[in-house]
Amino acid sequence: MLKGFVAPRSPLGAAALVPPPPWHFAGDVLAVEFWNDPDVSNDTLPAGVELETNRNGHSIALFADYQFTAQDEEYLDPARYQCRGFNVLLDAIWKGSRIAWCPYSYVDNDAAILRGWIQGYPKKLGTIHQTRTFAATSPASAPLVNNSRFAARMSSNGQLLARARITLREKAAHLAGLLNRRIVGRRHFPRLCVGMYDRPVVDELVRCISNDLLITNIWMGEGELDFPEAYGEELDILAPLKVGRGFRFSFSYSVTDIEILADLT
Known about the structure:
Elements: E1 23-35, H1 38-41, E2 49-51, E3 58-69, H2 78-81, E4 82-94, E5 97-107, H3 110-119, E6 123-125, E7 127-130, E8 149-156, E9 159-172, E10 182-189, E11 202-208, E12 211-226, E13 242-255, E14 258-263
Parallel strand pairs: 5-6, 5-10
Antiparallel strand pairs: 1-3, 1-13, 2-4, 3-4, 4-5, 7-8, 8-9, 9-12, 10-11, 11-14, 12-13
């Protein structure tokens, strides 16, 4: 009997691209809040989801450097389960509830792409880098102190898509209005049958559930952010009209479930 949570299923199940849940994540994030054109960003929303009108296009860009494990110490396979990612989150509303809609997401390995599709993130392959800090003091290690500067970049297919800089000003006890709403995505798997391309096998609006979420070592300051125009991409239509605060923090959480909000098939 073939085993495995996902393809490729195999006699032992070890060949599967992603192990079964629970999934655990931990890492560092650089985040920048910004405001885009609501008339444009509204076009990235699925039916039933609306922009939160009093937020004037408020959004968040997240650059993450993290690692993953399931229940078998997968973090001891760093080549496969270390990851860097980039997400955009828009302040939105679903049936009166405040949510964060994720229209674009990039990661740098195949396992993270498939995990994202399973969860409802529209992940694509990208290259993401961000400034790191280390326990050993050095000019090469950005310190977590006032006036320290961090930067991040994301590219895909050789094209620069996003770049950010953050100047730290003060340590914070919490994220002050950042990431205080559930992320909503769309699980969409098309059907490869003539005449049925527009009738997907799965089309669900889902709310992501994060268990045991811990956000710590929070610093905040000023942010800079830019989404350069690139061929074959549409991230630039969400380009910032105004940029607000920048954040640097560490996180951990676990995933075992998602909440299905609507079946769109």
